[in-house]
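Annotated sample (chain length 456).
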Amino acid sequence: MPTSLLSGRSRLPLIVLVFIDVTIAFACAELSEWVRFGEHATHYHNVMYMQALLVVVLSFLCEVYAPWRGRRISERLTKVFIAWSLSFMVMIVFMVMTKTTEKYSRLWLGTWIGMAIPMALGIRYGLYQLLRSFRSHGRNTRHVLVIGDGRNFEAMRAYFSQDNAYGYRLQHVIEHHNNEQALAELEQFLASNQAFDECWLCIPFTKSPILQPVMFTLRHSTTNIRYMPGLQDLPLMNHNITKIGDFLVLDISCSPMDSINTITKRVFDIVIGSLILLLISPVMIAVAIAVKLSSPGPVFFKQYRHGTSGKQVKVYKFRSMKVHQEGEGKVTQATKGDQRVTKVGAFIRRTSLDELPQFINVLQGRMSIVGPRPHALAHNEYYKDLVESYMKRHKVKPGITGLAQVRGFRGETDTLDKMQRRVECDLEYINNWSLWLDIRIVISTVFKGFMNPNAY
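Output written by the structure step:
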């Protein structure tokens, strides 16, 4: 097999990617100086060296330089954005701590950041598309031996026979009908001395007894061996491989809010929540006065909802209905033209202003800014047996806004299908959680999440 830069056994050298990042850092800094000062020289080289070093170190920590093969371009670009953003944030914090911010032009710094991050993302995207082009012509490709059976095997076979963007090509396929036949064909293939880079075992758990004899047959091979059981039909969440003691464990449904992720999300909630609460305090005062004048009763509506791990937490909202009594264990959703809703209540529900007091819940630690919207306890009892994996949405704190809300799945859930789609969005959010996803949802909420015709 060839071992050149574009061969199936190599990837873009790490040193090239590091060189590209350092070049971007210095080139954008120098260009920003020219934009800001013209031909007049400055003495900003110390922070240039600092930022270039930071972006390389943080890129290693954020796995920017990890192999690209088999990864989505969106995942790679997200890591690049986080590494570059953090490098500038750390540099600015250093300037503030050392009281040297007055030495540097803010316009120069802003121009540098505005140039460097888009350029880093653009170059990475261009490199990815270049790799796609090479792979479509059979270069930078790993050849795969596949042993499989079942729906997962057929789906994988169809997918990789059409698209080679991930850099894999099926070299030989062995259909597993019984162990003896599959092993005999495997031995025959190995005897033919055909070169291959990986072996994929796409067989369901029910046929797992073939694993050990296959591993024994491949004992003299140094190729990668991967096991792909058919898990698509299972409601997986945050799936990964974990080592507990001396045992390897396949995580099927686990919360992503462990260790550092919990701290990261909590810091985000406190910092952003405090800032938002400070900014919206005049609006909250105005809404509170309007609610109090609209009808007799308290300003806030307090109701218990399920929080993390299904524990009950008290959630605040501005009262939007006339004071009334519900039957025991019954919660009637608001519908279009609901007579219980006051005129002020209709406005604050339609504009989501009734949700503002929940920022207090965020600072209390009961809720998060982003997460699955908390449903009434009676609704949870009703839907938990009707919607698959419904209660898994309680693996994380409930949120003021979420992926379902920015996609338009909010308001009355008068059909089972509406609730199903909302829960699917919640589980997708939990399974793909990242700080960047939270930021994107917050930004989307600001631009399109407040006004909604489905909120009655």
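Annotation: The first helix runs from residue 14 to 37.
Annotation: The first strand starts at residue 142 and ends at 148.
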